[in-house]
Amino acid sequence: MSRQALVNARMVAEDGLRDGLALVIEDGRIAALLPSVDLPRDAERRDLGGGVLLPGFIDTQVNGGGGVLLNDAPTVDTIARIGAAHRRFGTTGFLPTLISDDLAAVERALGAMAAARAAGVPGVLGLHIEGPFISPHRAGIHDPRYFRSLDEAAVALLVRDWGGRVMLTLAPERNDPALVRRLAGAGVILSAGHTDATHAEMAAGFAHGITGVTHLFNAMSPLGSRTPGAVGAALESGAWCGLIVDGVHVDPAVLRLALRCHAPDRFMLVTDAMPPVGADADGFVLQGKAIRARDGACFDETGRLAGADLDMAAALRNAVAMLGLDLPAASRMASGAPAAFLGLAHETGRIAPGLRADLVLLDDALMVRESWIGGRSLGDA
Q1: Cα separation values, 285 from 69, 112, 161, Å
Q2: Has residue 1 got a pLDDT over 70?
């Protein structure tokens, strides 16, 4: 790949929003950040028209998009369609997410993720398996028919070398701590979610290797005056916490309070996206249930939440507008924090020399104009 310099943009660099810098891309990586005036005259320049250049968004919870749902067909084509739909909204790295299903479906999804990465499908970082090792008391839209506890067969499947990150959402109180420790020791990224855990059970889960919390506040035991629950334990911990910032899943006032109670670099924006993202249709079927998108969220016929009609660019805008964050802080939640959670901070998630050139260009209204994965723009992909 040729050496290219991106110029005439404000950049969210590691020290904040910067003007007057040139970003040099070589062999798919950020080769240098330097003042534009110091760029050699013979450098191949790409004028970004005064836009805002951010690290590309990383979404760890993407159930669907582009009209398709991973559970319906866990294949390379489905993953590619989901990735293409979210790429339009600045997502340059993502975990396709399988909602609670049987182990055969989990194996198919893991195999599809591995095959998608081998085939070079842009942006696929691994797979998020959300359930089935979760609590029936906090099922949400998940189908309780599939719920189970970890056993040797499940552990053997999850710890195989799948060639990408494997993230598992589980309820700590429902699973053998020894098996949880084995998964963590084998490199599976564990997140507590859909859990009715007490504060003590949740704290024990963190001690056993759980490092994340799936969609904080949603589908978990709440914070009470005498029962701090999963939410209290999460806010007290050092875990990375996913937030669905759509104004529906969690009231923005609650999220603003959470931001005051926990390390700011440990919050991640997630979409929990469903098929309507990047598609014309607003309805779909999830494991036999009719689901409809409305006001940025998805609901079944009883009004129960069933994921979101949310993309990462909209989540970023909401974080600025609803939570009062400045752009660098919102960008960290959309890129740097999820990269760190996945153990990929040395590869992506920031604008810094040596990292992969995964980038998104926004206009002044924070709408996506262009994106790059490994230095390749969407137009070149």
Answers
A1: 9, 21, 32
A2: no
Per the listing, tokens 């310099």 go with 5
Contacts of 120 (CB under 8 A, 6+ apart): none
What the block records as the tokens of 229 is 């629950």
Of 9, 6, 7, whose CA–CA distance to 18 is shortest?
A: 9
Please tell me the predicted confidence (pLDDT) of residue 148.
98
The Cα 159–Cα 358 span in angstroms is: 28
Residue at 117: amino acid letter? R
pLDDT surpassing 80 at residue 375: yes
pLDDT digits (tens, 9 = 90+) for 312-345: 999 999 999 999 999 999 999 999 999 999 999 9
Mean pLDDT of 44-65: 97
Q: Examine the pLDDT at 116 and tell me if it is beyond 70.
A: yes
Which residues are known catalytic residues? 272
Mean pLDDT value across residues 277-289: 94
Residue whose pair of structure tokens reads 């159930």 in the numeric block: 63
Residue with tokens 């409305």: 294
Q: Which residue has the tokens 């994921």?
A: 307
pLDDT in tens, 144-174: 999 999 999 999 999 999 999 999 999 999 9
SS3 string, the chain, reads CCCEEEEEEEEEECCEEECCEEEEEECCEEEEEEEHHHCCCCCCEEEEEEEEEEECEEEEEECEECCEEHHHCCCHHHHHHHHHHHHCCCEEEEEEEEECCCHHHHHHHHHHHHHHHHCCCCCECEEEEECCCCCHHHCCCCCHHHCCCCCHHHHHHHCCCCCCEEEEEECHHHCCHHHHHHHHHCCCEEEECCECCCHHHHHHHHHCCCCEECCCCCCECCCCCCCCHHHHHHHHCCCEEEECCCCCCCCHHHHHHHHHHCCHHHEEECCCECCCCCCCCCEEEECCEEEEEECCEEEECCCCEEEECCCHHHHHHHHHHHHCCCHHHHHHHHHHHHHHHCCCCCCCCCCCCCCECCEEEECCCCCEEEEEECCEECCCC
Amino acid identity, position 286: L
